[in-house]
Amino acid sequence: MFYIGENDFYIPRDANGDFIRYTDPGSAYGDTLEVMNGLISTHVVFNGRVGSMTGENALQAAVGETVLLIHAQANRDTRPHLIGGHGDLVWETGKFNCPPLRDQETWFIRGGSAGCALYTFRQPGVYAYVNHNLIEAVNLGATAHIKVSGTWDNDLMEQVVAPSEYGDAHTSGKALP
After folding, report:
1. Which of 19, 118, 144, 175 gives 53 a disulfide partner, CB atoms 3.0 to 4.6 angstroms apart?
2. What angle do CA 165, 44, 170 make, to 5 degrees?
3. How far apart are the first and last CA of the chain?
4. Residues 6+ positions from 115 with CB-CB distance below 8 Å
5. Residue 56 DSSP symbol
6. Do the domain assignments include residue 32?
7. CA torsion angle for 85, 170, 58, 9 (degrees, to 10)?
8. Model confidence pLDDT, tens digit, residues 35-77
9. Contact between 142 and 80 (Cβ < 8 Å)
10. Range of the domain at 87
């Protein structure tokens, strides 16, 4: 089971566009309130900070493992998406008494609530779990990675290029085979 708490933050900037550091939260109150009232987040993150579930902090799973993804957002509506997978079963309202939606690419979580999805990983690799407002996922931090270990199943999906660390061929300027 993975819990993803999505948070939006509103951090004041100075005249140069740099984030302002305050000596204590009380000193930041007026400026923070002004940014919050503009309703434009400076950060939209999972579990409290950018990178909380990527790189060395990535979530871990194995091929054949079924994972329950629980996603909550206190303030705003959000649309989770598992790149490379989907929600086999999805309960958008988080209520297991309700019949689940099936095979959802993206699902809807209302602000102030939680939803959940079950997915069985079928291939190894790194799956990106994102807020499907990709601007928020890429630019503001609402991204998690799930590193799935196991053996590749060519019967499920033909592999035309051997897996490699991202960037090996992509950033070297060499053409992919």
Report:
1. 144
2. 20
3. 38
4. 70, 71, 80, 90, 91, 92, 93, 94, 107, 108, 109
5. G
6. yes
7. -90
8. 999 988 888 889 998 899 999 999 999 999 999 999 999 888 9
9. no
10. 2-149
CATH number at 124 reads 2.60.40.420
What digits encode the pLDDT tens for the residues 77-87? 999 999 989 99
Q: Which CA distances in Å does 5 have to 1, 33, 35, 42, 43? A: 13, 22, 22, 17, 13
8 assigned to some structural domain: yes
Is 164 within the bounds of a domain?
no
pTM recorded for the entire structure: 0.81
**One-letter identity of residue 90:** V
In the numeric block, which tokens belong to residue 72?
Answer: 């909550």
Q: Is residue 177 assigned to a domain?
A: no
Of 131, 44, 138, 123, the residue nearest 85 (C-alpha):
123
For the purposes of burial, counting CB atoms within 10 Å of the CB of 146, is it exposed (0-12), middle (13-18) or buried (19 or more)?
Answer: buried
Question: How many separate domains does the chain show?
Answer: 1
